[in-house]
């Protein structure tokens, strides 16, 4: 059985790093793993998605629509945008943060106000996390990604030591401490 | 030892272990990380060339001189390098020569989705296509071997989903290859008509031989599963097919030339044959020409990427799940503090016709700036501005081009405009980096791929040497300077160049200044929204600056007539 994870957010929020930490974790757990990332144009503040597949036999590096176990959404609108990837009993983990896209900034469109209502109505299982506050508490707004990973690791039943090791293996030396704090706040909140 | 790594890094590892000695490339998504990774190996000389043509020529030179060499580029880069490619196919190689080319089906970061497999066919060089990270490494090593065995340059094709996916890769040791002996051999390496005619015969012989041998290559594999359906595929599509169906699969590791005999045998052992390939019917057409009955594009179309779900759907094995189309889109935007923004604001304000080019600044085409009229290929802004001018003579055309793009292929355009007595105005957006592809150095930054100091190409002196008399340098954050310069230069009866200079805010050496905020003098006139800065938000009738994003560049402040945009106290 494979575990399919989608990490979605806004270019610059660190989805790439988050997926790489999961890759390192899979390696530690001796699991087959493939990741798929987006670089280039779409990174410039655009909607971004990275795919993570872990299990015994992984073929395509991409998760299919309707087959995702966990979506880790770093931003609310992005949670909505990618929700069709979730499988029936999959879980959407949503950072309760709004980042305005250009059509909203220019007043051309409205940012959807009722995201959690929509999720309720559609019967989607979700976890709401104030990851930005927790990241600030850890010391930097940039650590939203690690806070969210902490939440995911807990839901996946991963030992804290293991996910912490994966963070240490992946994150740049000087950011390890703050990321460990963020991970802890996500995992143990 | 195994490691999870980016496929592009696996290609670099393969080249390293195969003993590559010289690498010359030009960045381009999704190929860039191959060369960036190669630069980390001390035993290899790696460099950024100003464009793909030069890059490939450097690699050809090194190969003829006896060193295993490589050049990496994106699909459109191979257009630029096509000239040396077609003729080095005639000369063949001395030491192995591998050209990695990355296609971008679905156009994640490209201006077209051309299929580079046709280059293999028309230049008569073999092309390998891996399906995952491990194969990317293995095929790169094999490519060097085949290149030497068959005396040919060889193409290694990647697509975005392969290049930017990660998987396990086995790490080995570098095999030091000795520099091969170089013997002058004008019959092989001097391609005059008299020299090239006999070489052309060799090219055809080589291709025939490769075609026959490909039927026995281990990288073209057959997996019999359900024999009702047989599928021919390669690259990332192989894994999609395997996951989507239980059909038998013939996986092509070499996509040109095709192992026709092997495919014929396969087709006889299955009830129906389908070719599943992204983009053009490259394989399908060849199979049909060889009399092999198959279907392909009538099911899958030529546009975009395939996926497990799409393949299932087209084979009648499942339905597609639609996305929510009513949500606000989130297109990529110029970053807060991007030095390109002010120039586009002024161009838009002055209602000039703007021939654009390729880079972060292409985002100036999006609303609310909507400042670009055209974008075709790297360097086109300069030639097109001249062409526009010749056609309409309206004194209102400006070409905009980034520093890396100008060095890549804008210089010849300027020489042309001056030589032919044109009068267009060109703005070089010099942000001291190759921004779009992730901040590579280029000749105008004065640093090599290793970050070492080198001669910094002097853009002012360069355009003067091309004969441009009117050269102005302005601060890209200073709207007034930009507007004054444009008003002055646009009407001159000769070519003008304005260099708008400011380093990219994302460069590590840039210190951001204190953010601005909007005070109660704001009259909600929305002037500041016209620059499309992601740091200025208009929500429920309220305009505010997002201090997480604001870099303190001050471009918006210059637009506020009411003095409502002010710096935060330190
Ligand atoms: C022939 C070709 N090679 C490479 C690319 C990939 N590419 C797109 S934009 C760009 C460089 C842009 O740099 P620059 O002109 O300095 O503008 P910036 O992004 O820094 O604003 C490159 C290499 C391409 N589109 N076409």
Largest sheet of chain A, in brief, is: 6 strands, mixed
Number of domains of chain A: 1
Tell me the CATH topology of the largest domain in chain B.
Answer: Rossmann fold
**Main CATH class of the largest domain in chain B:** Alpha Beta
Query: Helical amount among residues of chain A, as a percent range?
Result: 25-40%
Q: What overall form of chain B do the CA principal axes indicate?
A: globular
Q: Describe the main β-sheet of chain B briefly.
A: 7 strands, mixed
Helix-strand pattern of chain A, N to C?
EHEEEHEHHEHHHH
Q: Per the principal axes of the C-alpha atoms, what is the gross shape of chain A?
A: globular
List how many beta strands of chain A DSSP finds: 6
Identify the CATH class of chain A: Alpha Beta
CATH homologous superfamily descriptor of the largest domain in chain B: Thiamin diphosphate (ThDP)-binding fold, Pyr/PP domains
Decide which structural class fits the backbone of chain A.
alpha/beta
Please give the domain count of chain B. Answer: 4
Strand content of the residues of chain B, in percent?
Answer: 15-25%
Instruction: Report the strand count of chain B.
Output: 22
Tell me the quaternary state.
heterodimer
| CA distance, first residue to last residue of chain A | 29 Å
Would you identify the CATH H-level superfamily of chain A?
A: Pyruvate-ferredoxin oxidoreductase, PFOR, domain III
